[in-house]
Amino acid sequence: MTAENFQFQAEVSRLLHIVTNALYSDKQIFLRELISNASDACEKLRYLAIADPALTESDPEFRIAITINKDAGTLSISDNGVGMTRDELIENLGTIARSGSTAFMEQLEEAKSGDLSVIGQFGVGFYSAFMVADAVSVTTRRAGEEQAFTWKSGGTGDYTIEDATKDGRGTEITLHIRDDQKEFLEPYRLRSIIETYSDHIAFPITISGGKDGEDLEDDEADKPVNRASALWTRSKSDITEEQYTEFYRHVGGGFDEPWLTLHSHVEGKVEYRLLLFIPTERPFDLFNPDRKHQLKLYVKRVFITDEAEGLAPSYLRFLRGVVDSEDLPLNVSREMLQNEPLLRHMRSQIVKRVLTELERKSKNDAEGFRKFWDAFGAVLKEGIYEDHEFGERILKLARFHTTNGDETTDLAGYVERMKEGQEAIYYITAEDADAARKSPQLEGFRAKGVEVLLLTDPVDDFWLNVRPAFEEKSFRSVTRGGADLSKIAGGDEDKSEDDADKPGETEMGTLIAALKTALGDAVKDVRQSDRLQESPVCLVADEFDMDLRLERMLKAHKQVDEASKRIIEINPRHALIRRLAEKVKADGVEGEFEEAAKLLLDQALIIEGEPIADPAAFSRRMADFIARGL
Question: Is the residue at 506 inside a domain?
Fold first, then answer.
């Protein structure tokens, strides 16, 4: 069969352009990535062989071999893992299939030289080979099959695949090393990289070839360069911080440092070992809609799956690492894992352990915890809503922006600062903190010195429905119902001057009645406001209606057909409202009043970020009023 030519997926072409133009200065990481891929291939086959031992009968010992050919200028990395079919070559090496690849590419293009924090997070480690090679070939044979295939590319816009012959299963990647990267054909250089980055790999890694100068002695060629023992099985005292970091990068695919490392051997009802990490940087796919965690499940050091949904809840999907059980059966299927009681017990213990460490961090390292919360708080808060067992603990850990300044606070701190007479924890939801701070509904609370939580994550609208109170203090939205601030001490000490100009009760009653008539079914009610200080109007939801932002969010996802009617509140101290009251008293509701009433409603809708019913009519009314004013 002749070679078939294929075009790379667009994202791959962009990636190869960046890589081949030497964006990254630390080129040695290519070897770490290729060894990691080889290790994964061996892990996959070891798992498949549990159900089908014939796959490994003829070659039961897994290994990774690195071969140097200085005469040809090539470096080969081979494994006897699962191998690939022709279709898998196209899928794995011709596309970047993971969700969010577009955002990943944009970040990659913006990265500065030497910034390695983005490559590897989207399954693109293979392409790092083109940092040191001007051509790469991959010869592979799937375990259990006879036909092998060779993939070749020069790192430009296309690649070829052709039939090949190969003794035994697995994959061999051959790099034609660039003239200016010949250091990677020196055994001592490769040994140093492996000892630094890949010592934890569970399969022996050997180096052969290139014997001159400081190269390997004959009796060293077959000796593993790495210790080939699973890191999580070693004693913590035998592991350096550098080894933990490199293992984290191996299982997590990033280049940042782990913010928190959890290494335990748990014995009791269930025996298992865990080595978990919380990243410093937020992964690109953190908000991927599938919300899958990134933990790898092993049984007696045999890799089982990285898709055991019951191993950790979705709200801990920022965790990276390994859980190794001594009690689960080796032949456990992915389907059995869904209902495995031992796994449920492990999950509960893992959540407890993580939350305990986070609680300790929040007390002993406030600044570090603040950075963690900035990166992952929006995800962890999902547990307040979803987890009946641990939701209350997560709520206590949560940090919130408030109207008190730029620093975040926990709820315990908020409760301590509550004003005399304040009975509820007040909050406002918005797309971002700046938009929330500008909301007119906050004016009365600000005047009283009442702190208000600024809730800006989409999940905030949901957890409030299942956690309506904290320490017997109910949560209350400043955009819902009548805000009675009169019981709260402080703030507006003397409003006698404003009250002197405020319309009397009769005038206000007449104005409110006139506004109700003019606005009709467009609003649910018109009320005098206690919360407004500077703005003339605002919209609020009725006491038992859906909050404004939640309804807007559900409507955008077509889960609400028709928007609820809102209450419009008016500020009797504002000059515009006073003028309207005077006009109604003098002229009734004739002439321009109805147009003015509709302008007030449109203004309230715009401030709230809601669409106005008739933009053309709004523009005409506004132009008319400005013209008359001039």
Answer: yes
Which among 441, 514, 539 has a CA at the least distance from the CA of 483?
441
Strand order in the sheet with 258-266: 258-266, 272-279, 320-325, 294-299, 302-305
The span from the CA of 51 to the CA of 59, in Å, is: 16
Low-confidence residues of the chain: pLDDT under 70: 1, 10-11, 15, 18-25, 96-124, 210-222, 330-336, 338, 482-483, 490-502, 556-557, 559-561, 590-591
Q: Strand, helix or coil at 363?
A: helix
Strands ordered across the beta sheet of 424-429: 405-409, 400-402, 453-455, 424-429, 473-477, 469-470
Choose the final residue of a domain: 189, 204, 229. 229
pTM of the model: 0.71
CATH number at residue 435: 3.40.50.11260
Name residue, tokens 């997926």.
Answer: 9
Q: Are residues 610 and 519 both part of a single domain?
A: yes
| CATH code for position 147 | 3.30.565.10
Same domain, yes or no: 330 and 281: yes
27 and 63 inside one domain: yes
List of residues 6+ apart from 578 with CB closer than 8 A: 501, 502, 503, 572
Residues 66 and 202 in one domain: yes
DSSP string, 550-606: HHHHHHHTTS-SSPPP-EEEE-TTSHHHHHHHHHHHHHTT-TTHHHHHHHHHHHHHH
How far is 185 from 542, CA to CA, in rounded Å? 73
The dihedral region occupied by 456, where left means phi > 0, alpha psi between -120 and 50, and beta the remainder, is alpha
Tokens 């913006």 appear where?
A: 110
Q: Are 111 and 188 within one domain?
A: yes
326 belongs to a structural domain: yes
Partners of 77 in beta bridges: 66, 173
Q: Amino acid identity of 318?
A: F
- 27 strand-pairing partners: none
Q: What is the pLDDT of residues 522-542, one digit of tens each?
A: 899 999 888 888 899 988 888
Burial (CB count <10 Å: 0-12, 13-18, 19+), residue 155? buried
Classify each residue of 266-301 as buried b or exposed e, where b means 16 or more C-beta atoms within 10 Å of its C-beta: beeebebbbbbbbbbebbbbbeeeeeebbbbbbbee
Q: What is the strand order of the sheet 148-153 is part of?
A: 4-7, 158-164, 148-153, 133-141, 170-177, 74-79, 64-69, 205-209
Residue 393 lies in a domain: no
* pLDDT attached to residue 94: 77
Residue whose C-alpha is closest to residue 482's, from 545, 433, 437, 430: 545
Host H or E run for residue 344: helix 341-364
Among 229, 255, 282, give the residue marking a domain's end.
229
Enclosing domain of residue 221: 4-229
Return d(Cα 160, Cα 6) in angstroms, integer.
Answer: 6
Q: How far is CA 306 from the centre of its chain?
A: 18
519 in the same domain as 413: no
Task: Indicate the number of domains in the chain.
Answer: 4
Closest of 369, 441, 467, 442 to residue 409, by C-alpha: 369
Q: Which residue has the tokens 């006073």?
A: 578
Q: Residue 9 and residue 449: Cα distance in Å, rounded?
A: 57
| CA gap 617, 152 in Å, rounded | 64
**Within-domain flag for 313:** yes
Both tokens of 350, joined, read 């893992």
